[in-house]
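Quick one, probably user error.
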């Protein structure tokens, strides 16, 4: 079974309106949520073979907390993941080499919510910042499609934070 975890970047800052979107960093809440979610995910999985990350600063910063908790075999930055839509994200997954069993992909909404809804019978209105969902592929990555994929874990920061 192949497993991929779609991880939406943690909450980003809008403090400096002069920054390009791609350069926005995490805000205080993002810096709280990203390490928390990395630790929670590390309770479920111990290793990850491949990490794919959007080039956006907020995605890279979120990713850094996860690779500290669960060091990857390999990490790549993919321009195409930045604000990608469903078809682009699925295309990225189908490019993964078959020796990879577990992968993370760090990116953005609304694409991530749309991917979840494409593969799940449960409807999700919005994947929250630093939300995570798992898709499990029963075949090769190149066969990644609704007929070969099931949903697994779904978690987000409010599940672990009181108040």
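Nope, works fine. Designed sequence:
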């Amino acid at each position: 079974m192949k497993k991929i975890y779609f991880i939406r970047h943690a909450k980003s800052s809008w403090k400096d309106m002069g920054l390009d979107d791609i350069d926005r960093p995490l805000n205080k809440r993002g810096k709280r949520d990203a390490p928390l979610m990395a630790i929670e995910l590390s309770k479920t999985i111990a290793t990850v073979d491949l990490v794919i990350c959007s080039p956006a600063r907020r995605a890279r910063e979120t990713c850094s907390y996860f690779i500290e908790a669960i060091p990857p075999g390999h990490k790549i930055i993919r321009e195409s993941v930045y604000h990608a839509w469903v078809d682009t994200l699925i295309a990225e997954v189908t490019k993964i080499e078959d020796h990879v069993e577990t992968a993370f992909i760090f990116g953005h909404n609304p694409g991530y919510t749309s991917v979840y809804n494409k593969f799940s019978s449960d409807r999700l209105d919005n994947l929250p910042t630093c939300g995570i969902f798992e898709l499990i592929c029963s075949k090769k990555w190149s066969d990644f499609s609704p007929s070969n994929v099931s949903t697994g874990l779904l978690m987000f920061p409010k599940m672990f934070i009181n108040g």
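The beta strands are 2-8, 48-53, 72-77, 102-107, 132-137, 149-155.
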